[in-house]
Amino acid sequence: MARCTERISLASYAQRVEDSLGRRYPEPAHPYRNDYERDRDRIIHARAFRRLENKTQVFSRRYSDHFRNRLTHTLEVAQISRTVARALRLNTDLVEALALVHDVGHPPFGHAGEAVLDRLMRQHGDRFDHNLHALRVVERFEQRYIAFPGLNLTFEVREGIIKHSRDYDPASYPELAEYRLEERPPLEAQLIDVADEIAYNCADLDDGYESRLLTLDLIRRSVPCFERWYARVDHNWPAAPEKLKFNEALKALLNALVTDLIETTRRRLRRLRFRSPHQVREYPKRVVGLSPKMARENSALKAFLYRRLYSHREVDAERKRIIRSIEELFAYFMANPRSLPPFYYAQVQQEPVHRIVCDYIAGMTDNYVQQQHRRFCL
Ligand code: MG
Question: How far is the CA of 275 from the centre of ligand 1 (A)?
Answer without folding.
Answer: 30
